[in-house]
Write a structure and sequence with these properties.
With 172 residues, the chain is α+β, with helices and mostly antiparallel strands. The protein contains 6 helices and 8 strands, in the order ββααααβββαβαββ. Helix 1 (17-24) crosses helix 3 (41-50). The longest helix is centred in the middle third of the chain and has 15 residues, at 104-118. It is globular.
């Protein structure tokens, strides 16, 4: 486990199936991952069974964010892992609304940055954030990510389009 003052990050466990099923099928979060259809428990069970594989094989890593009592409140992901260019995308979700704005996401991101640099020897992390997502923009900027680009009218929301910002963090 990766431990901080407020949270710990741990590997996925089979017992996380029900929670992941709820989170992955919550349409409030679908725009964050460009999800268009629900996930079945069978698909998620298979994903959990494969979660122990090395990041060099799967090109991704998901860790559960747990509060000090051990309750899973969200997850943080590395994706599009590129060992040639020493970079990966990062995404974070605090699914438990009562746990938002408590410093959990920033500590999770800080722990993940250290892990990415020290254990995976990554040079950089990146993410994309919709222009309307002020809390995520503030989080990533607070954690040392810089806005380096804008994809104009990138995602459709209803009858309008939203810009998507590109952020990156060079791990020193």
């Amino acid at each position: 486990m990766l431990n901080g003052k407020l949270i710990s990050l741990r590997a996925l466990e089979p017992e996380d199936l029900e929670l992941l099923y709820v989170w992955e099928n919550d349409t409030e979060f679908w725009h964050l991952s460009n999800t268009l259809v629900p996930f079945s428990k069978k698909i998620l069970k298979t994903y959990l069974e494969q979660a122990h594989h090395d990041i060099y094989t799967t090109k991704q890593l998901r860790l559960m964010i747990c509060d000090l009592s051990g309750k899973a409140i969200g997850c943080i992901d590395l994706f599009d892992f590129d060992p040639q260019n020493l970079r990966a995308g990062v995404g974070v979700l605090i699914a438990d609304k009562a746990a938002r704005l408590q410093g959990y996401a920033s500590e999770a991101l800080s722990l993940l940055k250290s892990y990415a640099k020290e254990k995976l020897n990554l040079h950089q992390l990146y993410c994309t954030i919709l222009s309307e997502n002020a809390p995520s923009i503030a989080l990533f900027e607070k954690c040392g990510f810089e806005k380096n680009g804008t994809k104009k009218e990138w995602q459709r929301k209803g009858n309008s389009f939203l810009d998507e910002y590109f952020f990156q963090c060079i791990l020193m």
